Each structure stands twice: as structure tokens, then as C-alpha cells.
Amino acid sequence: MTPTASTGPVRTVRHPDGVVELRLDDPGRGNALDLTTAEALRDTALEVAADPGGAVLLRTTGGSFCVGGDLRAFAGRGTETGAYVHAVASAAHAAIQVLYELPVPLVAAVRGAAAGGGVGLALVGDIVLAARSARFRLAYTAIGLTPDCGASWFLPRLVGPRRAAQLILTNPVLTGDDAERWGLVSRSVPDAELDDTAHRTAADLAAGAGDALRAAKDLLRLDTGADLRRHLAEEARSIVALADGKDAQDRITSFLAAKSVS
């Protein structure tokens, strides 16, 4: 049997070994989250949740995992910026919630840049593998915004409050090896081995004791799903309030101008 795949900026690939792959497939834009992609991510996550196989593999096509929100789509909207950011965040947050509540193990494979919302998307995995050359950076406060996609919920639980504050407030760049040392990811692997290692990990889980794995995941998620839902709502409120302000809009414009020059 050969894998079956859907199409679009976010798609599913169903493998004969029981692995259901959810893949962001817009490499020309760094898999950035504009409204179309965020809604596709939400809808595809719901599709996967309805029939998740034995394990889910979250990965992306191209050189970047996900560069976060599409700032070009945010820029130039003036007083409509907040409404647009709210729509993007709402769709992305619905996807995060669905992925977090998947009944089967979720393996995430991160290569290249994971920035902004891409960090939260990566951290939703139960097992997160990163290429050694991967680059993790929150970057929100540098453009006058606050975290979304659950980043400010996952990070304190994974790395502790001090390191979470450092990541969110000062925006350092962590390599895959750094991310493993800090506890953001389960393991850092050589770049050339990431895809095979991630798929093999998911396939081994899919072939495992399914009832036990689901029950174990239930225990790990006990009473946290509602907490994440509340936190995602507060993240959306905060980033939307700032997105309508002049400081954030000026910083986004400056960031895009500097990027076009470089």
C-alpha cells in the first residue's frame, strides 16, 4: 500500500503503518500563518482528530518549520489589524487545542526556523524531535506583541518560569541542541536523520499497545485541557489589544523593511 495524501497549504498523509501525518506545506512562505493557513490548520487538525490512526506526525515541508504569523498579512491594516490578528489567532488556537487533545501520541519534527506561533505549534507534540540546525525564537516582544499559540502556557511547564521569562522577554535563538538542553524538545538529531527518525518514532508508537498509550496520554493530560483553553483565550485577547496599537504596527513595518533590505 502507498500513502494517501490530501492537498492544500496544510494537508494529511495517511501511511499504511498507521501513522497519520499532518503537514504544513507552504515552504515558499516559511509555512507562515495567515488566515487561510491558520484556518486550514484548524480544519485539517479536526479531520485528523476524527480518524487519528495509531499516531500522528506533525511536520512541515521546506527549510522552515513555521515562522509564525505572516507579518506581511498583518501590516498595513491600520485599525483593522486587531480584527485580522484575532481571526488568525482564533483559528490557530482551535488547532492547538485539537492537537493537544488528540487521543493518540503526537510526534512533532522541527527543522529550520520555529518562530512566534511556530514555537507553540512545535511544543504541542508529546514527543518533539528537532534537527540540530533548527532555530527556535519567540520574537513577539521584538515587534510589540505577546505570545500566542500556547507558547506562554507550554514554556513555563517545560523549562520553568525563569527560562520561560528569558525566552519570551529577551528573544534568544536556541539551536536544536540548545532546545534539548533547555527541555523544549525531547531530542535533537542530525539534520539528515530528522524525517526518518520522526516517522520511525511515530510508526513504533502506532504499532505499540494502543489502549495503554491512549490511557497514559489521558493521565498526562488530566485536567490540563480546560486550563490550556482558558490560557489560549487570554493570549488572543492580549495579542489583539497590542496589534491595534501604533507601537506594534510601527515595529512590524520596521521589521519587514529591514528584512527586505537584508
The H/E string reads EEEHEHHEEHEEHHEHEHHHH
Query: Based on the structure given, which CATH architecture is correct?
Result: Alpha-Beta Complex
Question: Helix amount, in percent?
Answer: 40-55%
Shape: globular
Q: What distance lies between the first and last C-alpha atoms, to the nearest angstrom?
A: 46 Å
Provide the CATH top-level class.
Answer: Alpha Beta
Give the strand content.
Answer: 15-25%
Runs with pLDDT <50, length 5+? none
Task: Specify the biggest β-sheet.
Answer: 7 strands, mixed
> In angstroms, what is the radius of gyration?
17 Å
Structural class: alpha/beta
Protein name: Enoyl-CoA hydratase-related protein
Organism: Streptomyces longisporus
Pfam family, one: ECH_1
